[in-house]
Design goal:
The protein is of the alpha+beta class and 139 residues long. It has 3 helices and 8 strands; from the N terminus they run E-E-H-E-E-H-H-E-E-E-E. The protein starts with a strand and ends with a strand.
Amino acid sequence: MKSLTEYLIFNVQSRTGFVNITSDVQKIIQKSGIKEGICLVNAMHITASVFINDDENGLHKDYERWLEDLAPHEPISKYEHNKTGEDNADAHLKRQIMGREVVVAITNGQLDFGPWEQIFYGEFDGRRSKRVLVKIIGE
């Protein structure tokens, strides 16, 4: 059994955003030389997410609108967490909804997806560098 661990770094310049990281993950799989196994991809920050869905701009706008309806950024004073001097309680809640990580099978050295599936990094409190862990395990 072999493994490879790498980190992707993102600095989304807006407060929220989605980045398709599928090709970045696939490059790490190629580098690992693993043909059969699993790939774990997880956000290393509590205000960011990794999830799988369709790479369609309208869907991403729908996500942003839906998440903002569920956990609006303002008024900041409505959140207990923000009374500590933070202003990102909504980002923590959005991350909880969108998830921390994904695990994808590797078959013949490729991510083994269903139709339209892609891996995304979701940012909910941007404007600074954040890491994503990619761990490949297999043979």
